[in-house]
């Protein structure tokens, strides 16, 4: 392990899943017959590096039961299940959770699961070996991978073996190569964000014309994401901490300031970019015209006008809209933003209502319950960010795979319990809130801004 930590996140539970996989979906097997379980009991009794893994799920300080509008909901199976009868007739036997088909299309990419690997940008945690290992495991899982902003302005663009001084690939291309070398034919995809500084470096032009990415591009598995904002710090650009030498190198492209009280460290700030309805429409038109073989995604921060923003992007031809809830993680942000700025993911989904295209939801996703609730409220797929990095930090070879296997099992169990066998069949009636009158969906469909 690298010493990576995620304060306020169920880190121990995630690391336990990265080690034990599907076994963590259940109580410890050796307690069977000697312990009785019910609501409020720890979901697992195994010991992690910091104590019992189940403690993460009971500690209210981790936000799992916080007022974010999503974790306060319960999955609510009906008694009568006509879709289960349809499946029984189709199969000629009683269906089980193993008959739930999790394959789907995520922003134009065929995927084995309704998941994608969220963007890791140029921060130290996401742009090094962990990012490469996460991409390789995402490829094994057959899910799309997003690469975040500022990778080229910060780390450069080196193909490796084409005359570079040390013959190594830059961080961006190392992640793309690891994914492309591992992913099976016909599934997955790589999506690369571009922000203001990335546009100055012509990141999309470089990738689209690069011979190394041509197999992905020509097979329809390359995409570009216009980054409008991010959940952890809505309205701000990316921030990282850099040393004095790197600060001098980056000062021409970024705002670099001495604000951290450490003579050897500086705060590097990217610009958030300026967007209006027309600018978003024009950007998407540019993307579709200049990169016709690439999928077009847009990532929004959890703004109060998120429903209007998402509708604008879909109407302009976006293949996917990513909504990053205020619970989303980051490598660095002002503390005041982490708990006080932006709408919770559940509220974003409520405001959007019935989506006009593929809707991708990110923010504190790490297990099947939260994923299913987001899918029931309109998401096509959910993103793994901090959970993925922690899992890979726990085991660089298979930690993310085991984490996702546990999440996928929980998802199949929950979807089957609802009498359904595809995540696309989920709807708001499948979740319940104690604040909702009987007979109404947990969160009203159709929103306001």
Describe the overall structure.
It contains 18 helices and 17 strands. It is globular. The protein has helices at 11-20, 55-58, 82-91, 124-127, 129-141, 151-155, 171-182, 196-200, 203-209, 214-218, 244-250, 277-290, 306-315, 335-340, 345-352, 368-376, 386-394, 399-417; strands at residues 47-48, 51-52, 74-75, 104-106, 109-111, 115-120, 145-147, 190-194, 222-227, 239-243, 255-257, 265-269, 295-300, 320-324, 359-362, 381-384, 431-432. 35% of the residues lie in helices and 15% in strands. The strands form five sheets. An eight-stranded parallel beta barrel has the order 6-7-8-9-13-14-15-16, surrounded by eight helices. A three-stranded antiparallel beta sheet has the order 10-12-11, with helices on one face. With 449 residues, the chain is α/β, with parallel strands linked by helices.
Bulk shape: globular
Structural class: alpha/beta
Unreliable spans are 44-67
What percentage of the residues does DSSP assign to strands (E)?
Answer: 5-15%
Gyration radius from CA atoms, angstroms: 22 Å
Key terms:
449 residues; alpha/beta; three-stranded antiparallel beta sheet; 17 strands
Summarize the model shown.
It contains 18 helices and 17 strands. It has helices spanning 11-20, 55-58, 82-91, 124-127, 129-141, 151-155, 171-182, 196-200, 203-209, 214-218, 244-250, 277-290, 306-315, 335-340, 345-352, 368-376, 386-394, 399-417; strands at residues 47-48, 51-52, 74-75, 104-106, 109-111, 115-120, 145-147, 190-194, 222-227, 239-243, 255-257, 265-269, 295-300, 320-324, 359-362, 381-384, 431-432.
